[in-house]
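Per reviewer request, we include the raw input and output of the structure prediction for the construct analysed in the revised manuscript.
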Amino acid sequence: MKKTIYFYIALLFGFLGSAQKITTAIDSSQIKIGSQFHLTIKASVNAKDKVVFPNAKNFGALEVLESYPIDTVKNNSQYELIKKYGLTQFDSGRYLIPKLVVKINQKNFQTDSLFIVVNNVKVDTSKQQMYDIKNIIATEEEPSSEWWKLLVLLALIVASGFGSYFIIKKLQNGKVKEEEFFASPIEKAIAYLQNLDKKQLVQKGDVKEYYSEMTDIARTYIEESVHVPAMESTSSELMDALKKAISEKKMFVNREELDKFRQVLENADLVKFAKSKPLQFEIEKDKSIVDKFILIVDKALPRTEEQAEALFAEEVRRKELKKQKFMRTAISVGIAVVLFVISVGIFAYTFGLDYLKEHHIGYTTEELLEKEWITSEYGEPAIVIETPKVLKRNNDEKIQNNLPENVKSANRFMYGSIIDDFSIILVTTAFKDTTKLDLEVALETDLKELERFGAKNIIVKTADFENVKGLSGKKSYGSFTAFNDITKEDQKMSYEILVFAQPGGAQEFFLIYKEDDEHAKQIMEKIQNSIELRKAKQ
């Protein structure tokens, strides 16, 4: 789960009343073939107006290369929504940008049509020096030529998935067939009674079906073990036959237990034929009586030596089947694991171990420390830092479309996440004026954001910051716990938050790593000492 730290963003909506207005402009009336120019559509609207700008791949004969996020500017009592498009054309000529439809509160407004001239690129061949055709130079094989390896990888993964699926399915089907054979009638009855509860018939309101199945299980057991015609008998006939059999076989069954079982049969008849609706505790009581009664009857049954031996042999057979099932499961899992390892190996060979670590496994902090580091410039106002990996821009369009009035731009760059071994989050903010951020307030806001994105039990310390290059600012540091979705446990993390400010701009830097990770501490120190700032552009 990727978690990010946002610089504070305010949503600017209020009640404004003014007329709606659409204006259109282009930044150039002439371009060269293939060059990009910008079309800007501005809509002056009220705060509550819903505006939908054009969304198409082509505007007339012109190709839309890029559709930029909407900028919002508050202008007195109105909001000005600014939408930019990057357009081009690859044939020379004079082209019309047609009237485009902007919807405001489901009402169509049209933009002005504009002309753009696309000129040929002139090449003076008389002054162009001619060269002999060069010999073919061998180059490194492009990754595209390694597609067959990827196909093998995918085939192995698919085979592993399907193989595991069908093996498990077969095992499951085999399990069902095996359960049809029980060592004795009592085991069968117990299994069916347990399965009856799993059906949740009572919870579904089907009490009649519940009592029917429960008494049928008991009747089947009595018929198979005591050998009386229980299934075709009425409740009274069953009890009479059961009492007679108990007497003839000299079975010891308490009269009280017989009376309880008889009462269950009568309750079942009332439910099935008189639409009786017993309460929940009554249903549970009847079920408990049936469970106990069949065990009492089974214990009282007289058994010959041959019957005892048969039961023992059946139990041995069931244990063997269980062992075989376990072996099949172990083998199928083993095959899947082997195929997975082979797939990973082919993947690493095809794309390189670095690619695998970069996109799937990740690097350890020791590997990050030993890698060749990269010095890059990020955001506006620019911050120059040296990092083991390039930070990737990660801006949210919704946030970008709702920047505060005095904010010109806000950019976020990151590596890793809040629960990774090591992560970096950088936020740069440029103001439209000479506003200077209050560092104390910024730190408080950042700590709240840290908590909002999963940090718990945050320990906070604050101090002034200054690196070897003389850059100064404020910092918060300490530790927190965060829930790891992979391990399903809380893990202890350390953090440092650095904030810098200058007239017209601000930078916020988050460094997060596992507590007691010495390599991560070295990375953090190296990054901090590399930080340089550029002045904000006014």
